[in-house]
Amino acid sequence: MSESKPAVSKKPTLATLFKKVADGQPITWLTCYDYTAAYLQEQAGIDMILVGDSLGMTMLGYEGTLPVTMDDMIRHTQAVRRGAPNTFLIGDMPYMSYQPSVETAIRNAGRFMAEANCDAIKLEGGIEMLSRIRGIIEAGIPTVGHLGLTPQSASALGGFRVQGKGAEQAKRIVDSAKALEEAGVFMILLEMVPDRLCKLVTERAKNCIIMSLGSGPDAHGQVLIYHDMMGLYPRFKPRMVKVFANAGEVILTGLKKYIEEVTTHTFPRPENYFTMTDEEYKKLLSMI
Ligand code: KIV
Question: Binning pLDDT at 50, 70 and 90, where does residue 160 land?
Fold first, then answer.
């Protein structure tokens, strides 16, 4: 892969993101879990990268996100930071890295900043997580909230389904968004809530950026899981995902071609290996 200049010459800050919103420009956000994809995402000019705990599924092959540890997250986040040194980077707090206590939450949020050079962290949950969110923000760490479908509590939410379709549950999401903003989160991800609810929360947000995942077009920006939008995750494709490029198919074609060429002796060709002179080869034979 040839080296080229980063598309973003100066690392964006919170102020850059808020300016985009004020200018009416949608914010682009993707998940990412490794150096190579991070390099490509930065070249493409993505605004923000989330090292999501979805790496439990996309990179580690678990069925869900619950087994993911802080050490898993830190290792992948460090790799992503090396690939995207000039992109706003958000670390996703895995299951039980913040739920047990405020102190645990601050300590683990701090690891993302100190060990992986993140710009912010994200954690799931509404009003019930306010003490953790306040603690992290008081420790000086920019924080993103996550409402609607929160995969770490999918079991309690009745599975991976749209949240806030009924007025009562929708009101709880509106109340949580307000409480999170008052606590100081600079951004909230709304995952799989109805488009009208997302629009309402976005219109009511004063000093908070609202991002949509499957929640419609009326947020300040969009986020998708990289493996979904690139056709890389084999187990399932959520209904709301658009596959922008089917990299999975391209890779599969390449793999089959490689197997075929090795099997039929058409690979390697002279340009794919190295030779030695007759003289050196003769010398070698005389030595063994
Ligand atoms: O872990 C993750 O990838 C997420 C997405 C739902 C954005 O939190």
Answer: confident
Q: Whose CA is nearest to atom 8 of ligand 1?
A: 52
Which atom of ligand 1 sits closest to the CA of residue 146?
8
The pTM for the full model equals: 0.94
Which ligand 1 atom sits closest to the C-alpha of 53? 1
d(CA 128, CA 248) in angstroms, rounded, equals: 39
Question: Cα of 171 to ligand 1 centre, how many Å?
Answer: 23
DSSP state of 4: -
CB 75 within 8 A of CB 129: no
DSSP strand pairing (209-213 vs 221-224):
parallel
Angle between helices 70-83 and 102-116 (to 10 degrees): 30
Tell which one of 27, 58, 213 to mutate to probe ligand 1, the residue whose CB is within 8 A of the most ligand atoms: 213
Beta carbons of 215 and 237 less than 8 angstroms apart:
no
Is 138 known to be catalytic?
A: no
Contact assessment for residue 98 and residue 132, using Cβ atoms and an 8 Å cutoff: yes
Confidence category of residue 236, pLDDT binned at 50, 70, 90:
confident
Name which residue sits closest to atom 3 of ligand 1, judged by CA. 52
Provide the pLDDT for residue 1: 47
Expressed in angstroms and rounded, the spacing between residue 228 Cα and the centre of ligand 1 is: 11
pLDDT in tens, 212-228: 999 999 999 999 999 99
**Which pair of structure tokens corresponds to residue 49?**
């990268």
